[in-house]
Amino acid sequence: MIRRMSNKISITASVTKQTSEREDEPPDDPPDIGLSEGGDESPEKLFCENLVRIGSPEYSTQDYRKFFRKRFYPHVTHREWKDWKWQVRNRIRSLKSAARCFVLTQAEQRALTEYGLSLPFAVTPYYASLVHPSDPDHPLRRCVIPLPQEFLRSPGESEDPLSEDKQSTVSGIVHRYPDRVLFLATGFCATYCRYCTRSRMVGHSAIGHFGKSYLDGAIEYIEKNPGIRDVLVSGGDPLTLSDDILDWILSRLRRIRHVEIIRIGTKVPVVLPQRITASLARLLRKYHPLWMSIHFTHPDEITPEVAEACERLTDAGIPLGSQTVLLKGINDSVETMRSLVHGLLRIRVRPYYLYQCDPIIGSSHFRTTVTRGLEIISGLRGHTTGYAVPTYVVDAPGGGGKIPLLPDYVKARDGDDLVVVNYEGREFRYPGAFRE
Ligand code: SF4
Hints:
By secondary structure, the protein is α/β, with parallel strands linked by helices. It has helices at residues 10-16, 43-51, 61-72, 78-81, 84-89, 95-101, 106-114, 125-128, 139-144, 212-224, 243-254, 268-271, 278-285, 304-315, 334-346, 370-380; strands at residues 2-3, 152-153, 168-170, 173-177, 180-184, 230-234, 261-266, 290-295, 320-326, 350-356, 391-396, 401-404, 410-414, 417-421, 427-430.
């Protein structure tokens, strides 16, 4: 294993030259306003001795969230808390601010001291209120608080496992499939996931929201290529862009005659549901057909705020799908995944993809086996609503695209008959399946 050091890529190299053009970039280091000094009581005492029994019948997650706000943001009004720009300005971004909200292990402290070498660190106050303050194994905590394992490189890992840089035709465009492109519209995210496939390009200090000439270049490429019928706007997280910039991007794309559909890939409804305002929903609905893929990880993310955000989007006519990365110890069980997909259907989000975790550098502690992934699909298919079952895929390292992985339901071919097994393992025969 070797130490992880470099984060340079070609897409961002051209962007860093445009720092003077960057628009709407959030401040580098938000002030700690609103965080209580905490009096004499140590967080450990408060969290461990008295208050937090998340999961126990008498103490709910909602109770803890109320406590969290009162304890750490006592002077922040309801209006401020619900303001997405306030949430972004006040993200937890340092060891000091993290240590005020969470009882950090030594390993977490060490990783937070060194994180500047690799993945960025930022958590919205909203998402921090969902994170267990003292349990380092809490699934949401593992998604956002770094560990030293991130700095290790294991065999087969790479900074750009999907070869997006090689398939980047101009800055900000990855053109892998003939009829569609990935448009990396920003390098900024509200909260950074520790297993991010694009950690090489998101959140680094020289890169925030990109400048106009970068966006122009990407859109001009789409204009000049009539074979592109589908544009996935992603990043970073495009919903961290201001309404004005989003409106400008989407209106430019919608004016291109050969672009049939626009898709947005985002985690904002999950980590920053305050961003899904009525005016954003009105803006997005102008650009139909527009679809949205939301990055959900765990059922604990489905809060009343997230349900409201998704309702606003679906009521604006936007079909919502979820994309989930399979993560060891976080969501790699049938029970957790069932709870997640059922929760998603309740808020009108269709589970779309379950990804085998990409071999990004420092992700070995997140990766689980394909056998486990197939067991999860077997545990869902037939046991629950078909809409609830995502397609399990491996995104082929080297840029081969998404390849579906399925449990073995086909047992044999017997003459012209197909022998198959159902979800209970019972065998059936379909006659004449191969007869013309
Ligand atoms: S929201 Fe997406 S792009 Fe941003 S850190 Fe998470 S996985 Fe990466």
